[in-house]
Design brief:
alpha/beta; Urease, subunit C, domain 1; about 25% strand; binds (4S)-2,6-dioxohexahydropyrimidine-4-carboxylic acid
Length: about 425
Amino acid sequence: MRLLIINGRVTDPSQGFDGAADVLIEDGRIKTFTKGERIGVETEQARQARVIDAGGMWVVPGLIDMHTHLREPGFEHKETIKTGALAALRGGFTTVCAMPNTNPVNDNAGITEFILKKSQAEGGASVMPIGAVTKGQKGEELAPLYAMQEAGCVAFSDDGRPVASPIIMRRALEYAKGLDALIISHAEDPSLADSGVMNEGLMSVTLGLRGQPSVAEEVMIYRDIALAELTGGRLHIAHVSTRGGVRVIRQARERGLKVTAETCPHYFTLTEEAVAGYNANAKVNPPLRTAADVLAIKEGLRDGIIDVIATDHAPHGREKRTRHFDEAPAGISGLETALSLCLELLEEGVLTGPELVRKLSLNPAGILRTGGGTLREGAPAELAIVDPSASYVLDAEALISLGKNTPFDGRRMKGRVVMTITGERISEWA
Ligand code: DOR
């Protein structure tokens, strides 16, 4: 099958390219990338291809989400591998990395293989499993990292909860170093977090909710960076939400350490104010913070301290709506809103188009060492076509994800993914 995408603005940070280009896809691979020249529709190549006129559109490498919660096995009422992988395509993601906090936990090669087989059978975005650091994510005993890596895990994390014990985290980083594997830290000191359900501050006092101070994140980032320095293990900090967290990572970088970091769209678009009225859809872990934190996150994105924007897609079911705020599960369904929220960063001048695309595709591919995030000739055809001028009001119920839990319901969204291409498969939306 041949596909010719013409007239678009094509941004491919892997080739330092941002401009007018045509892309010819043949048998699921990038065949030609013209860089400035146009492949005429009159040519032989074009006559044999399906031509997609991307005039006014933005053509980018398929986005790679290094932080997704698919709920299968165990919580299929919240999300299945199939619905999550389809929601990913709708959001422009051609690859998602599945966090291990399923039931059973992905802490052995059998579960890893199950996730891979199921996702390959279902279609949708590619799913790359992230294995647990400890058995059952209990923080007590290391999971069999080598066997899980052999089975296909691209990184290890106990995300959803921290690795509380410093000695276990030290061992994990030492072991991971031997495997050249990546450890992803859910940075939260449990004793300081003190079961807080929102950010600690005036707002939590006013609402009478238990607060989780930002220092709980900052302290844990500091600890994990110190342990990465000691062991030489590769460390990535998940969902950075605080000014202090950005500062600690910046200091580490200035000392030449290779720690990498991600944030999520909700941490640069919302503050703790979104929790007003006990809105459980704005309950997320780490919690939404203050305007000063949002500013620091944007600075971190701008100056490259935060390498990646990930969704932390965390779909939940009815329990999100029916339980009191304290009891409701934390998380935001994020795959289908991420790109639109990121486009707000372009409008505000925080990032340029190529910088944004880099944080959503090339950087995660580089950190995970999975390949992808490129439109180079010969690479698998994984790309998204975005209408940047589209504007619509989000209807949570219309999300493909089973998780309708989003604090962005009713928000005017910028831009829309109109087509996602994964090899020979074309998914398109009006
Ligand atoms: O808000 C969150 N939800 N944060 C996490 O770390 C886990 C996630 C989930 O699995 O629901």
